[in-house]
Amino acid sequence: MRVASIIFLTGSIITACTSPKKSSLGHVNPYQYTINKKVEAEKGAVASAHPLASKVGIMIMKQGGNAIDAAIATQLALAVVYPAAGNIGGGGFLVARLADGSTVSLDYREMAPASAHRDMYLDPQGNVIPNKSVKGHLSSGVPGTIAGLVESLKYAKLPLKKLIQPAIDLAEKGFVISEREARSLNSLQEELRKYNTTTTAFQKTAPWVTGDTLIQKDLANTLKRIRDNGAAGFYEGETARLIVDEMKRGGGIIDYADLKNYKAKWRTPHQFNYKGYTIVSMPMPSSGGVLINQMLKMLEEKPLASYGFLSPQAVQLMTEVERRAYADRARFMGDADYFKVPVSTLVSESYLKNRMQDYMPDKAGSSEAVQPGEIPAKESEETTHLSVIDAEGNAVSITTTLNDSYGSKTVVGGAGFLLNDEMDDFSVKPGVPNMYGAVGGEANAIAPGKRMLSSMTPTLVLKDGKPFLVVGTPGGTTIPTSVFQTIVNVIDFGLSTEDAVNKPKFHHQWLPDQIEIEKGFPYPVREALQKMGYKLNERGAIGRTEVIKVRNDGKFEAVADSRGDDAAEGF
Ligand code: DON
């Protein structure tokens, strides 16, 4: 729907001439809002991919909610205002430090449907069928997001019906879209026509323009069923019927039993020490926690800070630890409920020391020479991030995804939400790269009920047991390297929070054997790395990192990545 007249002022104020309607949104005006990149706050802070979602989180805390309430409400709002990745048809991970000092992690990653099988994306000759694991109905895993949000109510203070109402209002009454969103929706139109059996709210004959209002009535109704029935409002009843009918129309395989059997799982966070800080991150089926553990520990003894931020020496060392960790990811990592992942060896001091033995300063390593490590036979396994903190001592780090931007591009007819294409995160054939170029094998092969290996790395850094950093990002396989670099930028290089987030990032994932760099990566450093023998590949943005830092004076500093419409809010 197009609004009458639009005043689009700058990149940071989105506005349309529509008067705010009274709703659960309180002071959040979906027709005129600002994008703040940095806030300082005392009582609570939220950084997420969308200003309206961040504002909803703060509003919930002002109404008496804690950081968990705010995280649930923010995520539900993102499912409406950030359809490219915010979702109820995908999955995610939560890592939290609770007010009582304990740490928890929740796995609500999608799972393979019961009738999925190892070779389901191969033709009779055993070749991968292009796009089959990436687009349309067959690419979706059983969604986990709603199970995860309902499960995390365990630590919330407010009822679901209060936390979900802002999302319902945003879907029902609409919100004004930004230039970036208009562009993104326009680029999606052809695929929407191709992969849908009904007409979706994202389709329009005239192009979307800045200031248009996006209304999602079917999604509002789905959210109301969840409000009234909790997880059963998604996994059973009308919503389940709409999902299964959609699967039947489009040749998908998710059935009623898959939906009913889906469970979010509490897991022990992957935790370790780095230079006196405690890092709390996600365990399998995320590779993230183990990867950042390996990378940080491989360089802990080296004089990294003395090399200087983004110096050729620092980038080279960080590249070489990234190479080694990602080689291990390809061989050893997958859903630990299905495959024995040798976690304790992979992060042990002697193993990591050994991994770095062939590291040569000033000379490029090679991924042919650096293979996955040796594990002894006897061994004791488009995305979006939000960071939330409150004054009670709760800190929440959530990364959630549909995988590709707008997932499978398939919207559940009548239910109004996009389904993920997370099945592509499995290794659909040993050695064949997925959409992020990641290779895998047995550890991450498809099996019924199994969860596909993820790179999502929602992370907390604790100082003396108390929250210091809340950090995470989207970006496929670049996620662990972005989180790793953000942590090193703050702890080792002493960068400000903004610089730690916004300065150019780089990425090496073993295969392909090249360093991916962002456009702003300095030219003299490129030349120095090339001289050492590295191949460089300039690419688009790496991640959209949201960080909250607790300063020495106890105040929160929330920074939203400048690479997108991401916004930080606080009070
Ligand atoms: O779980 C994973 O590792 C991927 N599905 C994440 C995808 C992602 O970050 C896309 N965003 N840019």
TrEMBL record:
Keywords: Acyltransferase, Glutathione biosynthesis, Hydrolase, Transferase, Zymogen
Superkingdom as given in the UniProt entry: Bacteria
One GO MF term: leukotriene C4 gamma-glutamyl transferase activity
EC number(s) per entry: 2.3.2.2, 3.4.19.13
Pathway: Sulfur metabolism; glutathione metabolism
Sites where the protein binds L-glutamate: 109, 401-403, 425, 454-455, 476
Quaternary data: This enzyme consists of two polypeptide chains, which are synthesized in precursor form from a single polypeptide.
Reactions listed under catalytic activity: glutathione + H2O = L-cysteinylglycine + L-glutamate; an S-substituted glutathione + H2O = an S-substituted L-cysteinylglycine + L-glutamate; an N-terminal (5-L-glutamyl)-[peptide] + an alpha-amino acid = 5-L-glutamyl amino acid + an N-terminal L-alpha-aminoacyl-[peptide]
Keyword flag Isomerase: no
Organism (species): Flavisolibacter tropicus
Family: Belongs to the gamma-glutamyltransferase family.
Entry annotated with the keyword Acyltransferase: yes
Post-translational modification: Cleaved by autocatalysis into a large and a small subunit.
Source taxonomy: Bacteria, Pseudomonadati, Bacteroidota, Chitinophagia, Chitinophagales
Name recorded for this polypeptide: Glutathione hydrolase proenzyme
Gene Ontology BP terms: glutathione biosynthetic process; glutathione catabolic process
Active-site residues, record numbering mapped to chain: 383 (nucleophile)
